[in-house]
Amino acid sequence: MEFETTSSWIWDGVHHHPHVFGCLMLTAALLGLSTSYFGGIGLSSFPYMCWDLGFFYKKRCEKKKPIRVYMDGCFDLMHYGHANALRQAKALGDELVVGVVSDEEIISNKGPPVLPMEERLALVSGLKWVDEVIANAPYAITEQFMKTLFNEHKIDYIIHGDDPCLLPDGTDAYALAKRARRYKQIKRTEGVSSTDIGPGPNAHVVYIDGAFDLFHAGHVEILRCARQLGDFLLVGIHTDQIVSEHRGKHYPIMHLHERSLSVLACRYVDEVIMGAPWEVSKDMITTFNISLVVHGTIAECNSMLAGIADPYAVPKSMGIFRILESPKRITTTSVAQRIVANHEAYMVVLSSSPFLICLSYMLVSWINAYPMRRRRYPSEFVIARGTGTMEKGLSWPCEDELKGLRKIVSAMAGRRPEEVRVVVSPYRICPLGAHIDHQGGIVSAMTINKGILLGFVPSGDAKVILRSGQFSGEVRISVDEVQYPRPIRKNSENHASNSQKLQEDCNWGNFARGAVYALQSRGFSITQGVIGYISGSEGFDSSGLSSSAAVGVAYLLALESANNLTIPPTENIEYDRVIENEYFGLRNGILDQSAILLSRHGCLTCMDCKTKEHKLIRPLKLQKFYKILVAFSGLRNALTNNPGYNCRVAECQQAARFLLKASGNENMEPYLCNVEPEAYEMYKGNLEPLLAKRAEHYFSENKRVIKGLEAWASGNLQEFGKLISASGLSSIQNYECGCVPLKQLYEILLRAPGVFGARFSGAGFRGCCVAFVDADFAEEAASFVREEYLKAQPELASQLNPNSAVIICEGDDSARVMQQK
């Protein structure tokens, strides 16, 4: 053994490089033959020398039989105690086989498990120390099962912790294994058993969950705040799969084990639950004797905006849920951005030294040769080819904008700047699904990194005091006064696309009144007002990018934050609809507010306006990086008062009535979403020409949306762009909207270099056009559009600021409330 230890490098060389070693030995042999070079070894000794080498080489090549060890358990709500036990078990052998006890066995011996078998199997299989998993293992080792382990699974030893494991009748569950002398014991990790987790039944246990990816100071501070609220801090850490589902496939950057160990190292944390479920259930609360569930305002997985089901519905209903203001405005995204920035600085240093460049390439080659050493970074932080710029998420608002806004509100309210909260309510674009949301169609949308910023502080009483960066005057209202609807028109003249004119017509402050009305009418007690300053991105006035919905959402979020209301985005979609449909009497759908409240950076938001369901689609791999061009026409007010456009919604409903009656469904509501595509194909020839165009736009646009979602999911921007352009053409030909300047701008964008597809935003009578463009050609395309539009419409183009006539944008996130660092 001593020989093998001190000379193992020799036999490694023989095994891995026999040709090299053979040459060396041949040289040595020849020396021995001719000169007795090796202390008297001559010709007669050479055969024995060769035999010895062959013996040792054969011994080295003999495959050692692996020691297989078995450990079982319930593994319900995986925590570090489980993980550490499996790590210790693996250290006692070469291969670890884990038995996961069945749901039925757990129920009969301990009570119902929190996690079903499928989820427990996934958690155990995901551990790095586990080689094989046996499902539905018995709670007690029976003689028959022990034979199966030894004979079929080739198990050498059965492992368990030093804590007693007794059956209901008081007998040892591992007695048979001990009698067979095939039992080994590991030391149980103190304090981390899901049976006795926590300090005792009378302790005040605080629970907080999240991804805790790239563990940073923001995590430490929120954990410190949470720990101060009780006697014992229990932290739930979501699985990699859950984090990916809620943040995108490139997350988490650190895997579950690394995140768990980081959290455990924090002095404020008493215990962790590895693989905690997304929703906090009543069983979980009672199992761990949880007294309070908390959630930060800045979270790794933003569960408050998940859009489908509130994960904290149960603790809220029990009155044990509390929002904690995150002390530090740090996120995994911001940390990753620092990593990228540091990498760029490092590359600058490298460029000055040929030696360092060579060393860097060697290091990269070594890392790429070992996949386990690589880390997954989000696509947002990949350097775009050929542009020299990075695709960074959440680039808006910048620190200067936030600082300036906080300074204004601080002066208005007499508060410190760090007390000022900011609502970020982005504008939206609708690549596909134009003009069909009011008919219950399928639509797509995403937000851009421009929009509404509302800085505010709670007023401390019922007063609301507001000023605007776009409009003059000061608005003063009281939230304890009952608000009543203020319809602007008696017809459908105002559509969402006329948002700027809408704000002027109805007095911009009435949107705040509408927000109060929406919350009051749905039974919320609003006692706290706000002092705030609202402003939109420069150059986007009258853009047709849903500024009215962005303003309404901003006021809703500010009032909810000031009154400590936690309202899911799906409900806020309804409340913003109340502002526009009920308070102002407009006839628009829910596309705008849905996009603003549900979108995620890097995703396309798909919404079924009939069922109100939505999903986020992130492309598997984009073939190219893209930017979003917003090209302005210079038209702030519609050039026409054509009553035909104002009747589009009614015309769609007329077409729906005819088709439903023809297909025997006249009792259904007159929306085109209630008409089966087969019925449309059968009876469309009988429609009046005008109604036929409206119906054709609806059904063809629905098809384009579905095809577009497939193209986006596969990363095919060329196909996605063609469908956007086709949507724009149908809006002109079948929905009959758009004016000459907007149509010209649309055609110019289609000719611009690198543009995948374009259409005008909104109705096309004012505002802008939007286009998806190859990121490498974004600047060139913008210059082309400016020059060509100046030729086509010199009078309108001259009214635009050359620096903001065409703006290059990126995707953004949903509306959110930001806290000071």
What's the CATH topology name of the largest domain?
Answer: Ribosomal Protein S5, domain 2
Major beta sheet summary: 8 strands, mixed
- Give the termini distance in whole angstroms: 61 Å
Structural class: alpha/beta
Radius of gyration: 34 Å
Strand content: 15-25%
Tally of separate helices: 30
**CATH architecture annotation name of the largest domain:** 2-Layer Sandwich
* Shape designation: globular
The stretches of 5 or more residues where confidence is low (pLDDT under 50) are 1-21, 23-53, 189-198, 301-307, 359-393, 489-506
Number of domains: 6
Helix content: 40-55%
**CATH structural class of the largest domain:** Alpha Beta
How would you state the average pLDDT, rounded? 79
- Total strands: the figure is 22
What kind of oligomer do you see? Answer: single chain
GO cellular component, one term: cytoplasm
Family: Belongs to the cytidylyltransferase family.
InterPro entries: CCT, Cyt_trans-like, Ect1/PCYT2, GHMP_kinase_C_dom, GHMP_kinase_C_sf, GHMP_kinase_N_dom, Ribosomal_Su5_D2-typ_SF, Ribsml_uS5_D2-typ_fold_subgr
Domain Cytidyltransferase-like: 70-197, 207-299
